[in-house]
């Protein structure tokens, strides 16, 4: 590099000397400004001729540094293949509100379970009434499954009934143990833990599908849905342990397990059969649950009504609004995605 600079300076000096000679030795008479411009042009031309030519920059992922360019260099063609918001789905407000009906429906189911628990703890609901409700729920649930589930045959239904009978017998045997399970714990602590478990159950519940499926279907539940189901069962055991007799414990446990285990399955079958019937069933559940809560406590009725409005109307509108701020960038720098086109 030092030798090339010396050559450039040497050529510049020769140029200035030649100009002085051509002017008849009167170098001082030459316009000094013109001479300086000629010298600078000569130096610039020599530097351009002496510098190596840079190769064209190529957009490659693996190839190391390219000669003459920085490691983080990009040209105008780098962002030509950039795509923004390619996978963003435009959601319709009415469709989102219709999908939120399933959440409001299950909220009403859990609230009705809490109302039955309260009436049972207050001795407003007898053991015979609870057993009658259990039998009605069990028969109506099996009728709905038999009418709506196409994969459910009569043999599978009988096998299902045998499992339910075995489960009910085991529950009846364990009822005395459940009754004395929390005798050393105060009722306030039991109520606080039960409410917390129900909140966990609602928060982790899988509203897109049911945890329990009809026989013949191969669908594995998620981890969060299993935790949600276990939380509801533990809450049922805590409530049952505050009842005075083993018969009441058996009746309330059977009612709770029928609701938490089979109600999502029945509502899912109704939704698959007819969405209009699903909306009608949800509306009836909302009216019935609001009526029972209003009879139980006015403040709870107002809070539950606000919750239903928030879930069914405010949350869908909120979801649509925040979609405007979603900004997704895709380009050649993303990970490769395998796309299979399987044709017969």
UniProtKB/TrEMBL annotation:
InterPro entries assigned to the protein according to its UniProt record, in alphabetical order: Plno_GlcNAc_GPI2
Chief location category: membrane
GO biological process: one example: GPI anchor biosynthetic process
Entry keywords, A to Z: Glycosyltransferase, GPI-anchor biosynthesis, Membrane, Signal, Transferase, Transmembrane, Transmembrane helix
Subcellular location: Membrane
GO MF term (any one): glycosyltransferase activity
GO cellular component, one term: glycosylphosphatidylinositol-N-acetylglucosaminyltransferase (GPI-GnT) complex
Entry-linked Pfam families: GPI2 (PF06432)
Annotated family: Belongs to the PIGC family.
Protein name in UniProt: Phosphatidylinositol N-acetylglucosaminyltransferase subunit C isoform X1
Organism: Rhodamnia argentea
